[in-house]
Amino acid sequence: MSILISRWLCLLSGMLAALCCGLPYCFGLYSQYLKQAMHYTQQELNLISTCGVLTAFFFVPAAYTLSISSPRINMLIGTVIGTTGYGLVWAILRYHWDVPLSFVCFAYALATYTSGWYDPTIIVTTALNFPAANQGAVIGLIKMMIGLSPTILTQVYQGLLQPDLLDFLLVSPLLVACVGVFNVAVLNIVPQRYVKDVSPWLFACWYVEVGGLLVFMTVLAVSPFPPFLGTIIMLLWFCTFFALPFVAPDPIMQTIDSGEVGEKASLMRNDPPTTVHQSETELDPLSFRVLLYLFVCFCLMGSSMMVFTNIAQIDLSLAPPHSSIRTVAVMLQGLGNGAGRLLAGLGFDALARFGAQRSGLLVLFELMEASIFLWFAFASYASLLPLYFLNGFLFGSFMATMPALVRQVFGASRLGAVYSILQLGCSFGQIFFSVFLAAPLYDLAANLQDNTVCVGRACYFTTFLVLVGFNLVGCLAALRFYYITRGASSILQITPA
Asked: How far apart are CA 174 and CA 183, in angstroms?
């Protein structure tokens, strides 16, 4: 049987799926509404968000399923799970269901599990559809769209749905359903003989298009531009992405035999091994590298996600009376997330061309994150906006470099497995920093004020100082990781079977 397939259409469908992967980052938009509607404490609210983060970054089942079946199966599973979960969250708030906290946690965890299936599927599929020399640019586009999605979705809310947050919650399952159906129809791994180098000018078109949207979204976030008009322009701009695959040098569609699809096993077998300095520990060097990288993920991603999920409460704690920048904060954090993924994807490839060891980026990221949290601890309300952007930027940069760095250090044959394991660092970090650290300290400060809403720098001061300490320790782990991976090849080339 013959089928039609295009790696460029797969890239486009992956970018659309990335919009859905960004839905968990929108939690700060409606978290305060959920807290008031269900009469939750901050610790109960953080428990809900943590359950969502835990499933959003739990990639192991998806990675295993991808290794034995088609990417379309993963997208179908993620679509069914996400549509059901987001639909339940909307129904609970819309019809005021009297359900226990555990059920709300389950519903939200089910909703965000869309990302747990979508993210590894589109990343691994895209990585295998393009040569290693283009890894940073291609994965950067996907990761950038994940980071930019909360800004896009928040702008849609401001321009078309505000102030009804229930309508926004209803849009979520509809978006997952539509995007999922499109991906089930077109996403696949192209045969290895079509995996050819891509001219930089073509990626330049994509990056100019996406970069222009990023600049426009920044203007919308900080200017009095009419929200409705801005949303319409943004949506029309986004629609132009659909034209870009048609300017690709290789055909938009290729008719091939269905037996050729999914040659990932033979493709991965030809991945050259990497050279690694022997570790002084008794652990297997591969296991030790994974554990080091996992701890760095725990410190940096977990602490960053604490800000993502607590952004409404951080805003309210320092805001003057009757003032709030919550929607602007969510948009700027999303813009930083998108900008970080965009620039890191390009920078990762640039470092390789200059022969630099790219694992050293982890040290830089950890130092910058520690500095940001130190600034957070002493921040005034006026300085929150650049901090939201910078936190999103560091998180996005870290996420964008992860797949290509994993492929460089661990090899393409381990890309899905190691990438999935590393995402657990974000989940465990979110549990520790948000549920067991930030939430109890916030509720304690609120109780001292005889209120359910904490006001003042004391609400998060201790939390941010602890985050500074953890990221400095994470910096030491990143230094060790850099030392034992200095021999990894700068760009992995895949030899045709």
From this structure: 14
